[in-house]
Amino acid sequence: MKTISREAIGLGLRIPYYRHLFEAWPKVDFFEIISENFMGDAPLPKRNLEKVLSRYPVVLHGVSLGIASAAPLDEAYLRRLKELADFTDAPYFTDHFCWTTAHDVQHHDLLPFPYTEENARYVAERAARVQDFIGRPFGLENLSSYVAFASSEMTEWEFNNRVLELSGCHYMLDLNNIYVSSVNHLFDAEAYVDSIRWDRVLQCHLAGHHRNPDGTLLDTHDAPVCDAVWELYRRAWRRSGGGFPTLLEWDENIPPFPEAHAEALSARQHRSRV
Hints:
Blueprint: E1 9-12, H1 18-24, E2 30-34, H2 43-53, E3 58-61, H3 75-88, E4 93-96, E5 99-102, E6 105-111, H4 117-134, E7 138-141, H5 156-167, E8 170-174, H6 175-185, H7 189-194, E9 201-206, E10 210-211, E11 217-218, H8 227-240, E12 246-248, H9 257-265, H10 267-272
Parallel strand pairs: 1-2, 1-12, 2-3, 3-4, 4-7, 7-8, 8-9, 9-12
Antiparallel strand pairs: 5-6, 10-11
C-alpha cells in the first residue's frame, strides 16, 4: 500500500479542480475522494481517477456505510468499496460515526444516535468486520451534530474512544466538526481534543462552517477555516507529538484550486506557531 507522511497536507478531490490539475499538475501531497463517487460503472469518473492516481496518492472517504444503522452491513457495497481500495492502493479508508439507512431507505444524511455502552459494542463489532473485510486501516469520523439524546451515557469523545478500543479501528478526526458540535451542545472543544489517542488518528479534516442568526453552527464546507478551528488545529498538532495527515474539505462555493490549496497549505504556518 502507498503511504502518506504524517506532515502531508491534502485536499478533497472535487470536479471543479480537474482542469487545473490536469493542465498544471501542481504539487499536492494527496487527495481524498468520496468513495461512492467512484464505485459505479460510469467510465468518465474512473478515467479521471486514473489520471489523478498517475501523480498523487489517494485516500477514500465514504458517506453511506452507516456503521450504526440497524440494517445489516451491505455486502455488495463492501465488495465495491474493497475493489476501489485495491484499485487506488489507498493506505486507509474512512467513514462516519452515524446511521444512514432505516427500513430499506437510504436517507443520504449522517445521522446521530445515543452514546451508550450497548451502541458502542454494536458499532465496534461492525467496524471491526468492515476493517477486516477491506484489509486496510479503517478510520471513523466524528460528526457535526445538531441534536443530543437524553439516553446517552457518556460524552461523544468517550463513546468514540470506546468504539476504537473495542474494535481496533482508528479515528478520522474532524476538527471543524468538534468545534461546530461544541458550540451547538455547549461542551469544551479543548477537552475533546485532549482526550484523543493520537496513535489511532489516521487523518484530520479542516473545513469552514456557517453560523445561523440564532448562533447554531452548520457544517457546510463552504468557507475558509475560522480562527477558532485553527486554534484547535494548533492544539491538536501539539498534543499529537508526531503530527497527522491534514486535509481541507471544500464542497460549496468552491474557489479556484490555487485558492483552496493555499488555504490548506496555511496549516504549515499554524504548525510553526505551536
